[in-house]
C-alpha cells in the first residue's frame, strides 16, 4: 500500500468514506422491499478495501501468513495475533493490522445491522483476535472498547446476559485504565482511513471516544437490570444520562423519558431527592424538542401532526411520572405517621419533626452533589422546577397540601393527552391516581367534615366512569373502580359515624345521610362480589389467588355495614342483622374450607368469628322484644 499522501491511499479513503455514508445516511432512504440495499453496497466496498490492504500486507512480508510457527499463525486468514509483540501502536506493521481490525469491526456491525448475527459475530471476534495481544494505546483503545460494546449488545440480544456482561465490563475497565495512564484523545475509528492532514480534531476525537464509553455504560445498565442488580443498573443509567448531557449526545425526548423512567426506580427506593431531580431534568430537557404545533398546523401537515402527537404524548408521560412522585411521597409519609388503626399518630409526628430539623438538611446537601444533571443553559431551569415541590416526607397538612397541589396540576396536564376517548385505560389510571391523592391528603386533615368532602370528590370523579364502563371489555378496571368506590363510601360512613358519636342524639338528616353512605358502600361491594360469580350467578367455591383478600374483605365490610344501618323499625333491624350474620358466616366458612385464606384475612376472620357468636344473641333479644310487644 502506498503512503498516506498517495493517490492510491486517497482512493481507499474515499471508498471508506462512501461506505460510511451509504451505511449511516443513504440506508435511511432504502425502500421497504429492499431495506438493506445501501448496507450491502457498503459491505462490498469494505470488502474491497480489506482485500486490498490484506494483499499489500502479505506482499510486503510484514507477517508471514504461510509459516507454521506459533509466532506467525493466522486467524481466519488474518495476520497472526503475535504481531502485538512488536506493535506499540504506531509501527507501520501494527497500523496496518489495526486497519484490518477496523475493517473487520465495520463488517461485523454491517452483518449485525442486516440481521446476519452469526457472520457479524465472526467478524467481530476476528477483530478482537487481531488486537487483543496489543498494548492498549491511543491508536487502538477506541477499537478495543467499541468491538466489545458490539459483542455485548449481540450476546444480550441472545439473552446470554453473563456473556454480554463480560465483554462490557472489560470495555469499561479498559476505558478507566486508559484514562488513568494516558487520558489523551485517542484515534477514532474513522481516522484510520483519512488522507493525511484530514484527521479529526482533538475535540472531536474526545467527543467520539466519550460517546463510545457512554454506550458501554448504557448497555451495562441494561445488563444489570436483566440480572436484577437494580441498584447497579440505576447507578449506570444515571451516569449515562449525566454523560449524555455533558457531551451533548442525546435526543431530547428520548433522554427525558429515560430520566423520568429512572425517577420511578428512585421512588421505589424512597430516594425522593434523586427522583425529583430526574423529573425536573426530564421536564426541562423535553422542552428542547421544540414547541408543540398548533391543531391547525397539525391538520395541514402530516409531519406537524406526528410531531404534535409525539410531544403531547411524551410530556403527558412525564406528567404521569410526576403524579407518581407526589402520590408516593404522600403515601410513604402516611405509613410513617399512622398508628395501628390508620389515624395520624401525633407523638410520632413530633418525633419526626425533631429528627428532620437535626438531620435532613445536612443529608440533602451531601447527596445532592453526586446526582446533578444539566449544563449552564439548563441547570438553573432544573433547579427552579425542583424548588416547586419538596423532596422530604410531609409531616403536617400544609406540607402535604403543597405536594398534593403539584400532583393535581400534573393530573390536569396528563389528562389533556390521555383523554377518555381513545385512551380509556390510561385516562382511568390517571383518575385513580387523582383519587389516591385526595385519599392520602385526607389522612393529614384533622377536620372530619373536610375529610369527608375530600372523599366525596373521589366519588364524583370515579362514579360516572364506573357506571358508563362496559364490564364485558374492562372487567378488571370495573372491579377496581367498584372496590374503590365501596371503600370510599365506607370511609365516609366511618367519618359520619365518628361525627354522630359526638352528638347526644343524631338528627334525622344525619341518620339519613349515614344510612345512605352505608347503602352506597354495600351496593358497590356487592357489585364487586357479583362480578366474581359465574354466568349462572354462582359464587366460586374457591377464589382465584388475587381475588381471595378483596372478596373476603368485601364480604366482611358488607357484614359490618348491614349491622350499622340505623332503623327504628325492629323488623328492619332484624333483617339487617340477619343479613350481616350471613356475611360474617360466609367469611368464617370459606376460611374453614380453604385454610390457606386464613393468613390473608387474619384480622377480618378473627372479627367475623367473634361477630358470628355475638350477633345471634342480639337477634334473639330483638325477636324477644318483638314477641313481647305483640
TrEMBL record:
<keyword id="KW-0206">Cytoskeleton</keyword>
<feature type="region of interest" description="Disordered">
    <location>
        <begin position="347"/>
        <end position="367"/>
    </location>
</feature>
<dbReference type="GO" id="GO:1990535">
    <property type="term" value="P:neuron projection maintenance"/>
</dbReference>
<comment type="function">
    <text>Activator of KIF1B plus-end-directed microtubule motor activity. Required for organization of axonal microtubules, and axonal outgrowth and maintenance during peripheral and central nervous system development.</text>
</comment>
<dbReference type="InterPro" id="IPR011990">
    <property type="entry name" value="TPR-like_helical_dom_sf"/>
</dbReference>
<dbReference type="GO" id="GO:0005856">
    <property type="term" value="C:cytoskeleton"/>
</dbReference>
<feature type="region of interest" description="Disordered">
    <location>
        <begin position="59"/>
        <end position="86"/>
    </location>
</feature>
<dbReference type="Pfam" id="PF12309">
    <property type="entry name" value="KBP_C"/>
</dbReference>
<keyword id="KW-0963">Cytoplasm</keyword>
<dbReference type="InterPro" id="IPR022083">
    <property type="entry name" value="KBP"/>
</dbReference>
<dbReference type="GO" id="GO:0000226">
    <property type="term" value="P:microtubule cytoskeleton organization"/>
</dbReference>
<protein>
    <recommendedName>
        <fullName>KIF-binding protein</fullName>
    </recommendedName>
</protein>
<comment type="similarity">
    <text>Belongs to the KIF-binding protein family.</text>
</comment>
<dbReference type="GO" id="GO:0021952">
    <property type="term" value="P:central nervous system projection neuron axonogenesis"/>
</dbReference>
Amino acid at each position: 500500500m502506498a503512503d498516506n499522501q498517495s493517490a492510491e491511499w486517497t482512493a481507499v479513503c474515499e471508498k471508506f468514506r462512501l461506505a460510511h455514508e451509504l451505511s449511516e445516511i443513504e440506508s435511511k432512504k432504502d425502500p421497504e422491499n429492499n431495506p438493506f440495499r445501501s448496507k450491502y453496497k457498503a459491505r462490498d466496498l469494505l470488502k474491497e478495501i480489506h482485500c486490498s490492504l490484506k494483499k499489500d500486507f502479505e506482499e510486503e512480508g510484514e507477517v508471514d501468513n504461510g509459516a507454521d510457527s506459533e509466532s506467525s499463525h493466522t486467524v481466519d486468514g488474518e495476520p497472526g495475533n503475535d504481531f502485538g509483540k512488536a506493535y506499540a501502536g504506531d509501527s507501520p506493521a501494527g497500523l496496518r493490522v489495526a486497519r484490518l481490525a477496523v475493517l473487520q469491526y465495520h463488517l461485523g456491525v454491517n452483518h449485525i445491522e442486516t440481521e446476519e448475527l452469526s457472520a457479524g459475530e465472526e467478524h467481530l471476534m476476528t477483530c478482537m483476535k487481531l488486537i487483543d495481544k496489543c498494548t492498549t494505546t491511543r491508536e487502538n483503545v477506541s477499537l478495543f472498547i467499541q468491538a466489545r460494546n458490539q459483542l455485548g449488545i449481540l450476546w444480550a440480544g441472545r439473552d446470554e446476559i453473563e456473556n454480554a456482561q463480560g465483554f462490557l465490563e472489560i470495555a469499561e475497565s479498559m476505558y478507566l485504565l486508559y484514562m488513568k495512564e494516558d487520558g489523551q484523545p485517542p484515534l477514532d475509528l474513522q481516522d484510520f482511513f483519512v488522507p493525511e492532514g484530514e484527521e479529526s480534531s482533538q475535540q472531536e476525537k474526545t467527543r467520539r471516544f466519550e460517546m463510545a464509553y457512554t454506550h458501554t455504560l448504557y448497555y451495562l445498565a441494561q445488563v444489570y437490570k436483566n440480572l436484577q442488580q437494580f441498584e447497579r443498573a440505576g447507578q449506570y443509567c444515571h451516569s449515562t444520562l449525566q454523560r449524555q448531557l455533558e457531551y451533548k449526545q442525546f435526543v431530547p425526548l428520548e433522554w427525558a423519558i429515560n430520566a423520568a423512567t429512572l425517577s420511578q426506580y428512585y421512588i421505589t427506593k424512597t430516594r425522593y431527592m434523586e427522583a425529583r431531580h430526574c423529573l425536573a431534568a426530564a421536564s426541562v430537557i423535553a422542552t428542547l424538542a421544540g414547541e408543540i404545533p398548533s391543531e391547525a398546523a397539525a391538520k395541514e401537515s402530516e409531519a406537524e401532526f406526528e410531531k404534535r402527537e409525539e410531544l403531547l404524548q411524551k410530556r403527558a408521560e412525564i406528567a404521569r411520572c410526576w403524579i407518581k412522585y407526589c402520590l408516593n411521597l404522600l403515601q410513604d409519609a402516611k405509613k410513617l405517621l399512622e398508628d395501628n388503626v390508620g389515624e395520624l399518630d401525633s407523638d410520632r409526628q413530633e418525633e419526626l419533626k425533631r429528627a428532620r430539623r437535626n438531620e435532613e438538611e445536612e443529608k440533602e446537601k451531601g447527596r445532592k452533589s453526586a446526582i446533578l444533571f444539566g449544563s449552564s443553559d439548563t441547570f438553573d431551569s432544573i433547579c427552579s422546577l425542583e424548588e416547586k415541590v419538596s423532596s422530604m416526607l410531609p409531616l403536617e397538612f400544609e406540607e402535604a397540601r403543597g405536594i398534593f397541589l403539584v400532583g393535581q396540576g400534573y393530573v390536569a396536564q396528563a389528562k389533556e393527552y390521555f383523554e377518555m376517548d381513545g385512551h380509556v385505560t390510561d385516562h382511568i389510571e390517571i383518575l385513580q391516581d387523582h383519587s389516591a391523592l385526595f385519599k392520602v391528603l385526607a389522612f393529614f386533615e384533622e377536620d372530619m367534615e373536610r375529610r369527608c368532602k375530600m372523599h366525596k370528590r373521589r366519588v364524583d370523579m370515579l362514579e360516572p366512569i364506573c357506571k358508563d364502563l362496559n364490564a364485558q371489555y374492562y372487567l378488571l378496571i370495573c372491579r377496581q373502580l367498584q372496590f374503590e368506590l365501596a371503600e370510599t363510601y365506607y370511609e365516609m360512613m366511618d367519618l359520619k359515624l365518628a361525627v354522630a358519636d359526638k352528638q347526644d342524639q343524631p338528627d334525622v338528616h344525619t341518620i339519613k345521610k349515614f344510612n345512605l353512605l352505608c347503602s352506597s358502600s354495600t351496593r358497590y361491594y356487592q357489585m364487586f362480589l357479583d362480578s366474581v360469580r359465574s354466568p349462572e350467578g354462582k359464587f366460586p367455591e374457591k377464589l382465584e389467588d388475587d381475588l381471595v383478600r378483596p372478596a373476603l374483605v368485601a364480604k366482611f365490610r358488607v357484614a359490618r355495614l348491614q349491622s350499622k344501618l340505623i332503623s327504628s323499625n325492629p323488623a328492619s333491624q332484624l333483617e339487617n342483622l340477619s343479613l350481616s350474620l350471613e356475611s360474617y358466616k360466609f367469611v368464617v366458612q370459606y376460611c374453614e374450607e380453604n385454610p390457606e385464606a386464613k393468613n390473608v384475612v387474619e384480622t377480618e376472620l378473627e372479627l367475623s368469628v367473634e361477630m358470628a357468636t355475638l350477633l345471634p344473641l342480639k337477634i334473639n333479644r330483638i325477636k324477644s322484644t318483638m314477641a313481647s310487644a305483640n
